[in-house]
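Why do we bother with a discrete structure alphabet at all? Because it lets us treat a fold like text: something you can write down, compare, and reason about line by line. To make this less abstract, here is a complete entry for Nicotinate-nucleotide--dimethylbenzimidazole phosphoribosyltransferase. Read it the way you would read a sentence in a foreign language you are learning: slowly, and without expecting to understand everything at once.
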Amino acid sequence: MEWTLESLLAAVKPGDKGAAEAAWKHWDAIAKPLRSLGLLEEDIVRIAAMQGTPDVRWGKKAVVVMCADNGVVEEGVTQTGQEVTAIVSENMTRHDTSVCCMSSVAGADVFPVDMGVCRALVPEVLDRCIRRGGTSNMTKEPAMTREECVRAILAGANLVSDLKEQGYGLIATGEMGIGNTTTSSAIVSVLLGCPVEEVTGRGAGLSTEGLARKISAIQRAVALNRPDPADAIDVVHKVGGFDIAGLMGVFLGCAACRMPVLVDGFISAASALAAVRLCPAVGDYLLASHVSKEPAGEMILKALHLRPLIRADMCLGEGSGAVAAMPLLEMGLAVYRSMTTFEATHIESYVPQS
């Protein structure tokens, strides 16, 4: 189906508490120490609530990589040029990026999506381009119009609907866009009400001088555009990117379709935060794969009430952390679905000790 913003938001319902309780009951009946798989058990229970059934299964796995360029690179906030976005986006179609190598191990299919790259890309990249060339320089004007932001959100949500029809049931979120740690830092600063310097890191290896330019650019963009922290769309259209808006749509679409979605690193988490601020029930459908080593990585997960499966100081992007978590979830699901129970093995059940 093709969503409108109104129908999309209306379709998002809270997770099913009854299904979660049934999933916990099943976990506690399995012949092993109670809750001994920790977050693996918790995440399977969360997925049961998402799917509305303790019979958890997810079929095929996908990595949705939103690709877009950002006008703010004019301010010298990045180490590499804007042309890198297009090159890496096309490399994904040749399975020649980090996330592609990792996805081949995890058994996930990679879907690069052109949301607004500086030039036209090869046909194998899904074309959902909102504006060729990317966003405007947010230090001089809003990054995009509000209408463009909504279009990007709906593009992400409608892509999730398409993937669901194709049998995909577990989605990892990724992105590719030179300059997008700058836009993400701006969004997080506004939504969390934190000083820019506290949430802004070096991204892909900025020098101290480059970091100072990045912080200054964000401060100027926020002062000029005055995004409203109570209106997530206002924030993203003024100081965000098409990749971030598209990922907001992926999170909203997964929630509307009752599908689990893995939050990747800093950019993905900033998008998830914006999606939850727009529609709080989206939070019931998020799984934290890892925590980025960017300064605000931990802060965002705390705000989303999520705990990461992996702590590995990763900050590569592309969806790499989300993909790395997929095999862990599948191991947890294997125990949940396949292991025998205390009753079947005639072992006395574990009981909670006070």
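What the structure line is telling us, in plain words: The chain is about 50% helix and 10% strand. Residues 146-165 form the longest helix (20 residues).
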